[in-house]
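Hi V.,

You were right to ask for the full record rather than a summary. Here it is.
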Amino acid sequence: MAQLDRRTFLAGAAVVAFDPADSRWLSSLPENSTAIQLPHLDGELVTDEDALTEAATDYGHLKNHRPRAVLRPGSVDDVVTLVRFANEHGLVVAVRGQGHSTFGQAQADCGVVIDSRTLAAIHEITPDRAVVDAGVQWLDLVRATLAVGVAPPVSTDYLGLSVGGTLCVGGIGGASQHFGMLVDNTVELQVVTGEGRLVTCSAEQEPELFEAVLGGLGQFAVIVRATVRLETAPAMARVYTLTYPRITDLTAAQRTALADGRFDYLEGQLVPTDDDGFAFVLEGGAWYTTEPPDDAALLAGIEPPGVDLVDVPYFEWLNRLYETVEQIEALRLPGPWLNAFLPDAATDEIVTELLTTLTPADAGGALLYPARRSLITRPQVRVPDGEVFFLLALLRAVSPPDDAEAERLIADNDALYARVLAAGGTQYPVNALRLTPADWRTHYGDRWPTVLRAKDRYDPRGVLTPGQGIFEPVSRASRTP
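Predicted structure:
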C-alpha cells in the first residue's frame, strides 16, 4: 500500500470539536453546547466513512472494531495534541501504519486511530544510520539507502511494513542469525508517551522508556521517529534453495549453517507437494559485490538431493515478496496467522507432530528457521531459553473467505500455542490468538511486574493500543480527570 501524503486525504469533513456528553466528534462547534473545540492540528481529524472503514480492519480481516475518528497527522505535534486530548476526555488511541496486523491489534473500538502514513519523511541517511518518521515503509528506506551504498543489516521478508509498526513488534528476518531483530538495530527513538509527553530516548537517554517501547506492542508510547543502523550494502545475492525429504534433515542442515554462520541469510520453508504433503527447503543467501561466493564451501556438509542457485540484484532479493503480498492483500482473505518461537530442543518434536495433521491448505505460507538468543537484546521480545530457537510461522489464508473455517484455524492456533508454551516456547506477537490478560502475564513471565510498572508510568490512563488486550480494560469514567 502506498504512503498516504497529507495533501491527499480522503474526502471528508474535518473535525473541529468533541462533545464529551455522547463522545461525538463534530465538524462545527454549535453555540450553547457541551462540545469542546479541538486544539489546532497541522493535519486533519476526520470521520468520513472511508476512513473509519479502513481503520476498522487490517490484513487479517478477522476483527472489525470501528473507531469514531481517524487522525492524519501533519506533524509530530499533532500526535502529542491528540494523545493529550485523549487523556483529558477518556478516549483510547491506536496507531495504524500499513495495516498489517492480523487480529485487530491496531484497532481502537470507539476511539481514535492515528494513521501514521502521513508521517513518512526520511530525514537523514549517513554511512551508519538513518533517521526516519514512523510511517516510512522499509521499502522506501531501503531504496533510499541503497542509492548511497548502505542498507539496514536486517530486513523483514516483506518490505511494505512501516518502521514504527515493525519496531513495536520486533522485526525478524533471515539475517537475524547475525544481527538480531530490527529492534536490536535501533539507536534512538522519538516517542509520544501515553500521557502525551514528547520524549527522545535511547540506551543512554531515558533507557527504561527506550527498552519498554522497542517490541512493546504500542503499550507505552507512540513511536513517531526512529534512528536505525545501516551498514555497507552488497550489490548481489546468490540464493541457494536446498530441498530435503524430511523435516529433521532440514533442521539439521539449518543448525549446521547457523553454527558456522556460512550464509548471510538463512531461512526455511515447508513447500506443498503434489501429494498434499510438504518438501522441506533451506533458503540460504550469500551477498557479494565483485567476487561470487564459494559454492562448495557453502554447501559442504549440508548438500541435499535437490540444489538450486540463482544470482539476483540485492534489492530484487530484498523486495521479492512485495507484489505477491500486495496481490493477496487485495483479495481481503481472512488471515489467521500463527508465529511462535520454539526452543531448539523441542523443535523437531513439535513440528513432526504438527505435520501429522497439517495440510498445505491449513499451513498457508509456512516458515521454519533458526536464530540466536544472544542477539535478541530487547527484553520486551520474549524468546525461549537456550542459545538457539526456531521461528515457526503459519501464514494462513482462508480462500474463499469462510467464517467457520477461520474460526477453526484460530482454534488450531490456540491449541498449537498451548503446546508451544508447554515446551518452553513463546509467541512472536503477530498472531490470531484468543489471549486474555492472564495469557499475557504468562507470555511476559518474570518480566510482567516490569511491564506493569512501565504501563503505570508511561500510560497510566490506559489510553494506548487497546486492541492488543494485554491489560484489563480501564474504566473510562474512572480515568478521566
